Amino acid sequence: MSTVTCIKERRSIRRFTNKNVSHELMAQIVETASYSPSWKNTQVVRYICVEGSLKDTIATECTSSFPNNGSIIAGAPMLVVIAVVKNRCGYERDGSFSTSRNDSWQMFDAGIASQSFCLAAHVAGIGSVVLGIFDEIKVSSLLELPDTMETVALIPVGYPDETPVAPKRKTVDELLSFK
Q1: What domain range includes position 115?
Q2: In a domain, 138, yes or no
Q3: What's the pLDDT tens digit per position in 5-40?
Q4: Total count of domains within the chain
Q5: SS3 for 55?
Q6: What is the pLDDT of residue 178?
Q7: Contact between 17 and 160 (Cβ < 8 Å)
Q8: What is the mean pLDDT of each run of 10 residues along the chain (179 residues)?
Q9: DSSP track, 87-129
Q10: Phi first, then psi: what are they for 94, rounded to 5°?
Q11: Is residue 17 a contact partner of residue 161, using CB atoms and an 8 Å limit?
């Protein structure tokens, strides 16, 4: 599959079959995603695969602000939690910030890595959807993440049980300008 085809055909999948995703396949997907660029090659993104009762607990206890996300997580065989190592992106060796964006670069890196992960998953036949409305503090607590890490996104994954069509896209004329 070409890169262009992969980008154009990948859809957010919210319904999955009950077939489990192998740990070996997840390792291959993460290995591909590990080639995502990052701030000064800090490689701060971490992928935490959650299954079973802990996944179900996250679905029920961490999504009250948007319950549909809980339903999507509950219906997926696996949940990938995207986390970052804090206080590395946007910093110089002396601890000062490199730009006026301070440490917000870690979210940029997490976004790039999440997209790479979802595209690699799509090539492997695995569906995914990036979720951003959840209780980050509770998820971090349930996963027993150290204070040096922060939860950024939740990505339910599995074999797709739907084939959504691409939503209408804005035209290039709306998106592109030259000065």
Answers
A1: 11-160
A2: yes
A3: 999 999 999 999 999 999 999 999 999 999 999 988
A4: 1
A5: helix
A6: 95
A7: yes
A8: 93 97 98 94 95 98 94 98 91 84 88 98 98 97 97 98 94 96
A9: S-TTB-TTS-BSSTTTTTHHHHHHHHHHHHHHHHHHHTT-EE-
A10: -85, 0
A11: yes
The strand pair at 149-158 and 45-50 is best described as unpaired
* Its pTM surpasses 0.70: yes
DSSP for 39-50?
A: GGG---EEEEEE
115: domain CATH number? 3.40.109.10
Query: Two tokens at 109?
Result: 């890196």
Q: Share the mean pLDDT of the chain.
A: 95
28 domain residue, yes or no? yes
Cβ(21)–Cβ(78) under 8 Å? yes
4 within domain boundaries: no
**How far is residue 163's CA from residue 14's CA, in Å, rounded to a whole number?**
10
Residue with tokens 């995502």: 36
Let me know if residue 167 belongs to a domain.
Answer: no
- Token pair 């000062």 is at which residue? 96
Paired sense of beta strands 78-85 and 127-128, if any:
unpaired
CA dihedral 168, 169, 173, 179 (to 10 degrees): 150
